[in-house]
Amino acid sequence: LIRCMGDSHRPSRDYEQPEIQPEQEHKGALQISAPGREVSINQLVQPPLWAPKIIYSLAKEIYHYVGEDIVIYETIDSYGAIMWPAALALCSFLENNREIVNLQGAQVLELGAGTGLVSIVASLLGASVTATDLPVVLSNLRANVLRNTRGRCRELPKVDVLSWSFDLKRSHPTGVHQYDYILAADVVYQHDFLEELLATMKHFCGPGTAVIWANKVRLGSDLTFTENFKKAFHTSLLFEDGDMKIFKGTCRRS
Ligand SMILES: C[S@@+](CC[C@H](N)C(=O)[O-])C[C@H]1O[C@@H](n2cnc3c(N)ncnc32)[C@H](O)[C@@H]1O
Hints:
Blueprint: E1 2-3, E2 13-15, H1 22-25, E3 30-34, E4 37-41, E5 59-65, E6 68-74, H2 85-96, E7 107-111, H3 117-124, E8 128-133, H4 135-149, E9 158-161, E10 181-185, H5 194-204, E11 210-216, H6 220-232, E12 233-241, E13 244-251
Parallel strand pairs: 1-3, 7-8, 7-10, 8-9, 10-11
Antiparallel strand pairs: 2-5, 3-4, 5-6, 11-13, 12-13
Helix pairs in contact: 2-3, 3-4, 5-6
Bound molecules: S-adenosylmethionine.
């Protein structure tokens, strides 16, 4: 067993760790374990020549929010297809602070939705949600979202491609989509699209919109983004626990 990626923002949950079956062993499957995480990864051991190429394997986790079991599949083919700690912090915050972020009947857009947990919890809390991410993440995101919301929510969430960009006016004209909340969890880390991310947040933040951004601070660039976020939005800190922070930003134009 290899230990990796622990974090302290995990709710209680059950694990259904798939056992390695004899036929999996020839593919070189390993179990990777971390506090609160069980992931099965193929390809870490060189497979025999006759073995089929396995792109990724799936790990299934069950979370408990809003009185529901939420079954999430993760994949290891993208950053976005695994659960990041700020998603858990944000779900817990949304569930326990409904008077501060009232999602009942709210129009919600999630940026960088990843596995979809935040969008699922927002839907269970009564919001009309659009979960967005890059194309590579979308099929896993869609499957997670639909599996956990069908028959449980007032409105089935939408799942769409949205690539952060300076130029969203053509694809998403201002005023056509009016959101009460933009949700974003752990979208700030080491990548080349931080300015595009801020531009995207600003694009969708109209009068009456609140950007709820949860982030585990890891790098100096995270602090730079935070400063730029504060310049772009009227900002308040909703939650802080060590390096886990949840900010609320509202439009400076309003
Ligand atoms: C660190 S993951 C966080 C995923 C999820 N919010 C969570 O907390 O578990 C960052 C997410 O942002 C998405 N992302 C990264 N760059 C992006 C871009 N340029 N446009 C849109 N989404 C992007 C990734 O695909 C990924 O789902």
